[in-house]
Structures are given as structure tokens and as C-alpha cells.
Design brief:
The protein has about 220 residues and is of the alpha+beta class. Bound molecules: adenosine-5'-diphosphate and magnesium ion.
Length: about 220
Amino acid sequence: DEEAMIQSEKLSVVGQMAAGIAHEIRNPLTSLIGFSKFLKTRIDSYHDYFDIMLVELDRINSIVQEFMALAKPQANQFRKHDLIKTIQSVLTLLETQAIMNNVQLTAYYDADSASLLCEENQLKQVFVNVIKNAIEAMPQGGMVVVDLKSSGSGIAVSIADQGVGIPEEQLPLLGDPFFTTKDSGTGLGLMVCYRIIEGHGGKIDISSRPGIGTTVTVHLPKFD
Ligand code: ADP
Ligand code: MG
């Protein structure tokens, strides 16, 4: 309806501005991080302060990166990609983090290939965010199972973990900017995921059982 359309146009203007500002912040931020690291090696005292600065700069960096992904995907940047390859590269990227957290990543594909029109880098970011959340939900380690199912009109990718789960009253808050239950979370990951998948004409479903685990399912249309 009209209300929803106005809402989504507002979101896209805000998203583009946020992405533009984030882009401008990135260069000065990179030099602040670089020089802080350099000074820490050159100055023998105040290392605690340098460490705090670096942690906080890293936090700004994460927020900036999440916002940069908000730039609305341009229709002409959509290309044909095999989503299986996209997921495989994301799994490779996260392998080290998984091992360090005692997490086993497994993937199942019900087809040899799963092509769709997309902005591949944006979809990578979605799967990185979701799989990172799954890893972070299992402080003692466990399994993350990625399952891709391809049908005539679309592709569904579910990411299931054995983590802490999400209390029912928090489900409506998922994707709200800055909603986080983590000490060093940004609360921007899922918001970015929702926006990117919306921009691809898809949707995200999240189901969870506290103490048992969470399943996030990303539905994407094939557009052809
Ligand atoms: P962040 O990871 O920085 O906290 P996100 O937007 O990625 O921000 O996630 C928001 C919140 O949603 C998390 O802080 C957590 O409470 C909850 N959440 C997301 N994914 C999971 C998951 N797989 N298991 C448990 N909780 C989750
Ligand atoms: Mg996250």
C-alpha cells in the first residue's frame, strides 16, 4: 500500500545517505587506525590507552562497514551468479573463525548449480552476517548447517545453529537498527541483511527455540 511505499522510499534515501557518510568516514578512520597501531609500537607507555583506542576504532569500523552495505543496489549491477559458489566462498572466508570457536560448518546443496540475478557482494555480506551470528550464538561451539534448496522460481538457503536461541519477545526486534544482545555487537547486521534481501525481491524468515537453536532462511527469487 501507499503508506508502506512511502516508508520504503524514506528508508532508501536514509540508506543511501548513511552509506555515503560511511564511505566518507572510512578513509580518515583507516589512517587513525594505522597511526594508532604505529604509535603503540613506538611509545613504551600508555599501551592500555592505545588498546582501548584500537578496540573503539574497530567498533566504529564495523559500524561504518555495515552502513556502507546499505547503498541501494543499482538494477544494472545485478549479474547472473551461481549462489552455490557464493556460499562456498563465504564458508571458506569463515572457516578460520569457525575453527577458533569450535564450530563445524557443513553445507548441503540439492542441485549442481543455483543461478540467479544478484549483486554478489551484497549476498556474500548477508551470508557472512548470518553465519557469524550463528557462530556467535554458540559460545561452547557446535554445528552450523547450511542447506540450499533450488526450485523452479526461487532458491531457499537455511542456516541452522545449535546456539542459545532467541526469546520469543525479541523476535519482533530483529533487524531493528542497533538491537543487539552482545557486549560488542553493532545491532546492524540483520538490518543490512533484511535490506539487501528486500532489494533482491526476497525475504528472510527466522525461527528459534531458546536453548535449542535458531534457523534463518533466506528466500531469493530467480527472476527468470
Ligand atoms: P549483532 O550481531 O551485532 O548483535 P545482528 O543484527 O547481527 O547484530 O543481530 C542482532 C541480535 O539478534 C543479536 O544480538 C542476537 O541477540 C540476535 N541473533 C541474531 N542471530 C542469532 C542467532 N543465530 N542465534 C541467537 N541470536 C541471534
Ligand atoms: Mg551480527
